Each structure stands twice: as C-alpha cells, then as structure tokens.
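Please, structure for the following, as tokens.
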Amino acid sequence: MVLLVRKSALPTPAEVPDGLREAAAAAASVILREPRPPGFPLFFSSKMEIIEPAVAFLHEHAIQRAHTTDTVRTYSEILFDWFDTLEQSQIVWSDADGADLVAYRNRMLTERSQHTGRPYGLRTINHRVRGVLRLYEWAVRSGWLTASPLIGRTRDFAVAHPFRRHYAANSERSIFVLRQFENLPEPLSSAQARELLVRLEPPYDLMARWQLYTGLRVSELLRLTVHDVVQHEKARYGSAPALHHAVRLIRKARKRGYVIASEGLFVETDSYMRLHRTAWLNRFARKRRIAGEAALFIGRRGTPVRKNTYQQVIRIAGERCGFVVTTHLLRATFACMMLARLEQLAKAGEPINPLLIVKILMGHSHIETTDRYLRAIAIDTHVLTDTLDSLLEDHGQ
C-alpha cells in the first residue's frame, strides 16, 4: 500500500530532546534553493521507501512551474492511485507498459470510487489516464527513463486497428483514452433555481446566488475575501448609484479578471456580513478559536467554507428538491441564461458579440469552451430567456 505523507515544518530546538537540539538548530539554518513548503505531498512505498519520480514530478510542477494548489492536488491523486495500483500488482513503475495501463483503465470502468462510492465517470477515467501518460513523457524528457512503451509509437498495440494509430501522437489523444461524447449543459429552470435557493441555509444560499448571477467557479468563489466586497462597498457609496459593479479577482490559473455583480447581490452580501458572519466570528472569538477572518464565506464554526462541503450541500439540496444539481451546473446556468439574453439583444440590432462577452465573463481561455453553451441554448432559447427574466425580477437585478 502506497502511503502519502504531508511534509511538516522542521521542529525548533525547544521541541526536540537535548541531544538533538544542536542538529535541529543546524537544520533550521540550512538555506535551500527550492524548498518544499509544509504540506507538500511525499510518496512512500509499503517498505517506507520514498517514490522519488513521483515526488520529483510534483516538485517540478508545484515549485518550479508554480502550478496552483488545485492542480498539484489533482496530480497527487493521480500519482497515488497509479503507484498504488502498480505496487498491488507488484509491477515496477519503469516496467509498466500498455497492457498495464489498459488494465488500470478497465478496472475503473468496473469498480466504484473508494472516495465517493460512485462509479467512475468517463471524464475522470480519461483524466487519470492522461495524467499517467504525462508522467512517463516527463520521466523520459527529464532523464528518469531512457524510454517507455507508454510514449511514442512504441505504445501502439500490434492488434490495434491501423486507423487508430494516429491517436497516439500525444497524451491527449491516444489508444488508451476512451471515446467521450460531450454532454451539453442542462441549466436549471426558474422554478428549480428558486426551490434550490429556498432549501439552502446561510452561507450556502448566498454562495449559490453568486454562482447563479456571476458564473464564478467554486475555487474563485471561495477565494473571495471581505476586502474584495468592502472596497466595492466604498466605491458604491462614494459615487452615483449603479445597477451593476465590476468585481476584480484572480481567476483560474492566476489570470486576472472580473465579474459583473448586481446591486441586489451586494445588498444581500452586506446583510450576510453584518448578521450571520459577524455573529459566527464573535461566537468563536469568545471561545478563543482561530477564525477565517479574511475569507468572505465562513461556516457556523467560524472557519472558511471548504470546497467539498459546499459541493455536498448543493448536491443534497438538489436531491431533496427532486433534481440533480452541482456547483458547476449553477455556473452553467448563468452562462446559458446570459448567452440567451445577449443573443436576443443581438438579433434586435445591438452591436454586440454574445459569445465573446460570455467568454470574458466566464473566464474561459478558448472560445470553443464557451461555444458549448451556445449549442445548449439552441435547443430551447425562449425557455432560457424566460428563466433569466424571472430570476432577475426576483432579485431586482
């Protein structure tokens, strides 16, 4: 069984026995060129031997390339699952070939996730397969391996049909990746959105509103701070009243961007901060517990809302309402609604590019990502337009 151990901070001389204090002081004085921060994942085999290629791969992406925390976490999960599978099968990682990767992929097709208890989705399976292929491409490029049957033409199976061999050009299109058909988003209707919001308690109801009315990703939503809102509060009261305000923030992959938030959403956020948030912070300040004062959205325990908690609350609320809903569906609902309204304005003669506007508001890097929402609203545009009108009327936006 592969073990994942999080790197901890070095102990101070006062925290170790007398005989080790001198060594602890010397260790603290060592200056490293690329130190790994506390919490960095370290992989160990069942024999407590460090799995060096996995750690080196994460080190390059986390420290040298400075990928985001979510990216490093995703790579950690992929590497842990892959190396654990190899160890259980008693396969050395450098000897893994196409048959091993196919067996790993097919196992996910028949088994359930140990983390969620649900069957693996095709997107998850392909994501993990691509992650493994990237690992071996990196290993050959970095000199950990001289060659690998998982990269280049040598990873083709002799029994594979000739027309599929061109898919082995890179880790994105290969014979190991399952054919995946794109699912168009099915946005919530006006009635479903209202019912969902009624089911949610603070602060999750306000978080869902931010996603429905701005299209924020969950990671971006959780990064919002009190300062992000307060500075716009000052701008609102220091200038002429406006129906909408631009909130600048750091988006996915550390890109700078902004979202358009309505006056009504700011009013609801201000009410939440003065009532619920202040009360929770004061209650836990009396108990001398550390509270997440910077984060905008905190729970009843005075700590910042966690991503998994929020996603689970939305999923359970949807089940109680009788329909399937995810945090990403809230974001997709905003995109479809906004695109439907802008398409209506464009047809009426407004000189605008609806697809480009929604691309910017959603923070997409490629217009092809936004185009899937255009195909979704083509199914029933007038319903989505009515949905947008109803929601905006409900909240005075």
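Confidence is low (pLDDT under 50) at residues 157-172. The two ends are 54 Å apart (CA to CA).
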